[in-house]
Specification:
Helix 2 packs parallel to helix 3, helix 3 packs parallel to helix 4 and helix 8 packs across helix 10. Strands 2-1-3-4-5-6 form a six-stranded parallel β-sheet, with helices on both faces. It is α/β, with parallel strands linked by helices and 219 residues long. The longest helix is centred in the C-terminal third of the chain and has 15 residues. Helix 3 links the parallel strand 3 and strand 4. Helices cover 54% and strands 14% of the residues. It has two domains: 124 residues, 3-Layer(aba) Sandwich (Rossmann fold), CATH 3.40.50; 74 residues, Winged helix-like DNA-binding domain superfamily/Winged helix DNA-binding domain (Arc Repressor Mutant, subunit A), CATH 1.10.10.10.
């Protein structure tokens, strides 16, 4: 069973999430919390595999809580719950080690799939959201940041030519299927390349890798 903790200050949201997840035979909601402080306390007590965590909450917010959760000795996989108008908070939270985020109106089937995906060790970032994040936050390195660009290029030098091509596609906001069509690969092959890229770069999600490609001037 995938032990899951729900944290949101809105009871109605938590109830809806629980109803959806309770319908999955392999997911168990082990607890609920209303703020970031509760999230950390419950994570220590209940040892969940996955935490669905709202970003904007009273008291300790989701960003602070995500950083504390991912710093635990045996950290859960943290997925942030957000809306598009909170992009800037999501960007900050992804830097803490959270493995992805979902919109609160995510269809039930996709929510269940997301919990399973992150439990398997993969990141859950919708390509459309990745693209929006990049459009808002990532930009080619300016002329006066040559050192930063060189460092990004050095970091990406571990990638093979094929992996580099896949990363460029990801950095352009393409889904695995779209990248596969553009590069003449099967979707499963692209997915495997993305997993290897993240492993080589020591990153947890597509957005971090895509931003690195932008920092290097690849896109």
């Amino acid at each position: 069973m995938i032990r899951t903790l729900l944290v949101d200050d809105e009871l109605l949201v938590r109830s809806g999430l629980r109803m959806i997840l309770d319908a999955a035979p392999d997911i168990e909601v082990v607890g609920e919390g209303g703020d970031g402080e509760e999230a950390v306390r419950l994570a220590r007590e209940l040892a969940p595999d996955v935490v669905l965590l709202d970003i904007r909450m009273p008291g300790t917010d989701g960003i602070t809580a995500a950083a504390r959760l991912t710093a635990l000795p045996e950290p859960p996989r943290v997925v942030l719950l957000t809306t598009f108008d909170l992009d800037e908070y999501v960007h900050a939270a992804l830097r803490t080690g959270a493995v992805g985020f979902l919109l609160k109106d995510t269809p039930p089937r996709d929510l269940i799939a997301a919990v399973r995906t992150v439990h398997e060790g993969n990141a859950m970032l919708a390509p459309s959201v990745t693209k929006r994040m990049l459009e808002r936050f990532a930009s080619p390195a300016p002329a006066d940041s040559a050192a930063g660009r060189a460092e990004a290029e050095r970091r990406l030098s571990v990638l093979s030519e094929r992996e580099s091509s896949v990363l460029v596609a990801v950095a352009r906001g393409m889904s695995n299927a779209e990248a596969g069509r553009a590069l003449g690969m099967r979707e499963a092959t692209v997915k495997a390349h993305v997993s290897r890229i993240l492993a080589k770069l020591g990153m947890s999600n597509r957005v971090q890798a895509a931003i690195a490609a932008h920092d290097a001037g690849w896109v």
